[in-house]
Amino acid sequence: MACPPFACVVVAAGTGARAGGAAPKQYQALGGRPLLRHTLEALLACPALAELRVVIQPHHLDLYTEATRGLSLPPPVWGGKETRQESARNGVCAFARLEEDDILLIHDAARPFVSVRDIEAVATAARAHGAATLTAPMADSLRGPGGPLDRAGVVAVTTPQGFRYGPLARAHAAAGTGFTDDAALVETTLGLAPALVPGGRWNMKITTQEDMMLAQKCLAQPRTALGTDVHAFGPAGSGPLVLGDVEIPHDRGLVGHSDADAALHAVVDALLGLACAGDIGVHFPPTDPQWRGVASRVFVEKAVGILGTAGGRLTHLDLTIVCEAPRIGPHRQAIRAALAEMVDLDAGLVSVKATTTEGLGFTGRGEGLAAQAVATALF
């Protein structure tokens, strides 16, 4: 059966106090965008959606305006002062021009992972049965005050919920108080039981800070960036050599403005690349005297902070050092441990490799060395 045209109310008037944070949860950032934005874009992706109204609190208007910037939406509906039931009723009343059998869906703003397939399934079931709700399977064992409960046939009630408009409006007008979802309100008030539409556990409701953290992981996007650096060797007797913040016995050190740690400079550029924040020369220019002789671990630690500010979490770091001499192998684990500590990663997520160019090029001639770093992060 084809999905019928439908209108939709998104209830976004809550304070979201259990989620914590400076702003109500529906306006908090999730994957770099407000949670509400994800929910609205999921609904707007439905071809059968005819109109969408969002119920908010008047004092959230600035947050709502920013969250919905660029979306083609009618003005929001003002929510109730006390309960979700009031806010949902206001949303239903905003569609008073709908006909008796027109389909209206009601969806929680805090469910951003709803799929087009599930939305259309609810609308279709509402057309056929008069009322419908999306559900999710119960995966955990259940227990009540009297002991274990049989979970057979038990489902979690989620949203969206869909209704023919006439019964929904009459139920809201006649209902008592204390309802937390519209399907229960309609069934209790009118005796119209909803069709149960099977959904998935992915359609989670974000209620607590723990939920927000889980949702962030679901939306995390990987990025990879490459950093490269080259330094020339100084004259004989200019050693020791510093690589990866580890002092390596060698009669020739590297020439540079800071400590010339080419390995860490490559790491810095990879970290800055993840944050799309330019390169090492932008942040620590060699013309600035404050960086003369500075240990390059300072640059790494600052770059880690820049990555964190950009919303990135480093998950893997791979460093390759290219030189004919000295041999890196005996110092590999020390460099690995130092890097892991600097970037706050488990050493098992940091790789240090070394190779030569078989006597070719400037590294093969012993004029200098090169380093490349590949960093991966989740945003």
Any descriptors?
379 residues; Spore Coat Polysaccharide Biosynthesis Protein SpsA, Chain A; 60s Ribosomal Protein L30, Chain: A; 2 domains; 4-stranded mixed sheet; 12 helices
What's a quick, concise take on this entry?
The chain is an alpha/beta fold and 379 residues long. It has helices at 35-44, 61-67, 84-93, 116-129, 165-174, 182-190, 209-219, 262-274, 280-283, 297-309, 332-343, 361-364; strands spanning 6-11, 29-30, 33-34, 49-56, 77-78, 103-108, 131-137, 142-144, 147-149, 155-164, 195-198, 222-232, 241-243, 246-248, 313-322, 350-355, 368-378.
Give the arrangement of secondary structure elements.
Elements: E1 6-11, E2 29-30, E3 33-34, H1 35-44, E4 49-56, H2 61-67, E5 77-78, H3 84-93, E6 103-108, H4 116-129, E7 131-137, E8 142-144, E9 147-149, E10 155-164, H5 165-174, H6 182-190, E11 195-198, H7 209-219, E12 222-232, E13 241-243, E14 246-248, H8 262-274, H9 280-283, H10 297-309, E15 313-322, H11 332-343, E16 350-355, H12 361-364, E17 368-378
Parallel strand pairs: 1-4, 1-6, 4-5, 7-11, 15-16
Antiparallel strand pairs: 2-3, 6-10, 7-10, 8-9, 12-17, 13-14, 15-17
Helix pairs in contact: 3-5, 5-6, 8-10
